[in-house]
Amino acid sequence: MPVVKPFSTIAEMFDVITRHFIDSDKPAYLYKVAGVYKPLSYKELREMVELTACGLAALGLNKGDKFGIISENRIEWIIVDFAMTTTGIIDVPVYPTLTAKQVEYIFNNAGVKGTFVSNQVQLSKVEKIYDQVKTLDKVIIFTEKGITAPDYLLSLRELMELGRDFREKNPDYWVNRIREVKPEDVLTIIYTSGTTGDPKGVVLTHKNLVSNILSATQVIPMTPEDTFLSYLPFSHSFERMAGFYAAFACGGIVALAESIDTIAQNLLEVKPTIMTSVPRLFERLYNRIIKGVESGPAIRKKIFYWALDVGKKYVQASKKGKVPAWLKSQYALANKLVFSKLKERMGGRIKFFVSGGAALAKELGEFFEALGIKIVEGYGLTETSPVLTVNRLDDYKFGTVGKPIPGVEIKIAEDGEILARGPNVMQGYYNNPEATAEVIEKDGWFHTGDIGYFDEDGFLVITDRKKHIFVSSGGKNIAPQPIESLLIQSSYIDQAVVIGDGKPFLTALIVPDFEAIKDYAKQHGISFQDEKELIHRDEIYRLFEREIKRINKDLAQHEHIRNFRLLDKPFTIEDGELTPTLKVKRKVVEQKYKELIDQMYEELGV
């Protein structure tokens, strides 16, 4: 079903949806308090958002001002986001895993006037950079302040009290601000990694996000009877649009997962009907299921693989429209013995998952479909608000990212790059007209940087990335070059290639500076015959472990190198690993060392 009520801005969406459900017993959100899920009604939500919005006005914030959010997913994130979007304040969400230095760059680039922080950990980052961000004034913490809080710090509770006083003197302020927000007004600036490693601010308007919500909800059925479990960060455009705004617009209940580590428990508690996710979750579920089967009794293993085979046959027969009676009875038995139990572990009510952020392995989609769990995969970018294409429940093909959503045009350029055009395409990169001109043509076509094609049935298939920015299976955009630059700054590292596209974490292939490690070996009494033997000595491996650990401290959590291999010879032009200008041919290296790369992930359970 489409959205509950029509709207043209996110501000209007909040207004009409909360008014529609204001007297409903149905909660808007479920969130954990002292280990138990607590409901937040639409009436309570509206009151808290208004008080926060009025509090920001009391601090002197106006439409068009920029304000940060550094927080994990929590109910306060939702409240302050709606407070800003309903009054025309531009929010700048920041991943809580970023370092203080990275936050400093984003805040200076955006010119934020203040920021929300979730806790003391995030506050400490802001305290380190406060004097370096000249526009930064107020900082508002979701928890209570410490005893020695700086003058610029307020708690969210104090902000709401300011808002209460402001509202008494200006009772119509908030509703008037909602009406003043226009579709073409900037809603948010989301920073995403660029080729140079410096994040670029993607400028998205209310119209951008609203168009994507309205289009996506036409093809992905969501209703007020649905319950969503949200765990992807709201700083990520996919979760912000799909798991936050679209779910709210359709009147669904959104339950906040505590973390990715608690999803198994939260699924049982919330019993969701729909969930947005990235492939990493399905990889984890798959590994857990297979591990449980393989470690169990032989009879259980036999039953599981029999049921899986029946499920695959049933799916194929269903697609052809002819399921023989014997297969129906076998499927019913397989469902009773196996499938229903697996579904119960996911709460028992899941209708489907929506996967995005990175490529879903075809085999994973087929595996879960055979178990009776549907995964629909979509494709998009932060720059496109984000959804461009999606597989429908009744029109899908694993190994593809589906068909364009209503209002979106897709074409393939001569070099195979996927180009997109539509009302969801960003306004540009903030304060970066050169980068904007590189990706958006004068007639509106946006260059995605992905290579792909339409198959014979009109499904979009992504085959490659035009540039080397890659996406982890957790959905994080990662630029490897800055990480590689940090690695080769080590006196012991000559060359490095970071691996991680579509993977759950990063690894690295490292060519040591052989002279440096030979000197180290001599100084520490490490004997060796040749370089090949030297790189396999435990003492040398531990040396590089320490180097990697040191370098990781300067990187965001999702940029950490989790495993590595030392190579016994450098990359060369002669071996085809380097271009004439000495740039690494990433694909050649990955193919050449595929076995080593696979070993690195297998060692850590992937």
State the main characteristics.
606 residues, alpha/beta, GMP Synthetase, Chain A, domain 3, 5-stranded parallel β-sheet, 21 helices, 41% helix, globular
What does this structure look like?
This is Long-chain acyl-CoA synthetase. InterPro entries: AMP-bd_C_sf, AMP-binding_CS, AMP-dep_synth/lig_dom, ANL_N_sf. The chain is an alpha/beta fold. The chain has a domain at 479-603: 2-Layer Sandwich (GMP Synthetase, Chain A, domain 3), CATH 3.30.300. Helices cover 41% and strands 20% of the residues. The chain contains 21 helices and 26 strands. The protein has a 5-stranded parallel sheet with strand order 4-3-5-6-7, with helices on both faces. It has a 5-stranded mixed sheet with strand order 12-13-14-15-16, with helices on both faces. Helix 2 packs across helix 3, helix 8 packs across helix 9 (237-249) and helix 12 (298-320) packs across helix 14 (362-370). The mean pLDDT is 93.
